[in-house]
Design brief:
2 domains; 37% strand; 2 helices; 2,3-Dihydroxybiphenyl 1,2-Dioxygenase, domain 1
């Protein structure tokens, strides 16, 4: 399996993927996480657009959500990933060798996007887990543990 995170495995930085050779490509739909977003510093979108172009990775800007611009792209298996600018960045270990300047580095997870037919049951579960509604936008509701 593939594990990504900062060197110390701080909460909010680790994600695991299990490779299933020969498995069919996944599809996005109702009742699941349809994208994973990562937090980048404010004013970083232009840097990442240029980096993706340099490495021939197709990406597109997404409409600002809760006043935060971002980019979306897919991995080789079709998983939708996003980089979202954030002013509330996690304190992650950025002392590693990379050609990405620290001022543009990814700072862990920003948010998953869940697609649900009815928000009520999922929201109730998340509130039971300690989440609070912190924002509403066009067809989006943001919950967070503060």
């Amino acid at each position: 399996h593939l594990y990504f995170g900062d060197r110390t495995g701080r909460p909010g930085t680790a994600i695991t993927f299990f490779a299933w050779p020969g498995a069919r490509r996944g599809t996005r739909g109702t009742g699941q996480v349809i994208s994973a977003s990562f937090a980048i510093p404010a004013s970083s979108v232009e840097y990442w657009k240029a980096r993706f172009a340099e490495h021939r990775v197709f990406c597109e800007e997404i409409p600002s959500r809760f006043n935060a611009p971002g980019l979306r792209f897919t991995d080789a298996d079709g998983l939708l990933l996003e980089l979202i600018e954030s002013t509330q960045l996690d304190d992650v270990d950025l002392e590693y060798e990379s050609d990405v300047p620290q001022k543009f580095a990814i700072h862990g997870f920003h948010a998953p996007t869940l697609e649900v037919q009815q928000t009520g049951p999922t929201e109730e579960l998340l509130k039971t887990l300690g989440f609070e509604l912190v924002g509403e936008g066009k067809s989006r509701r943001r919950l967070s543990v503060n």
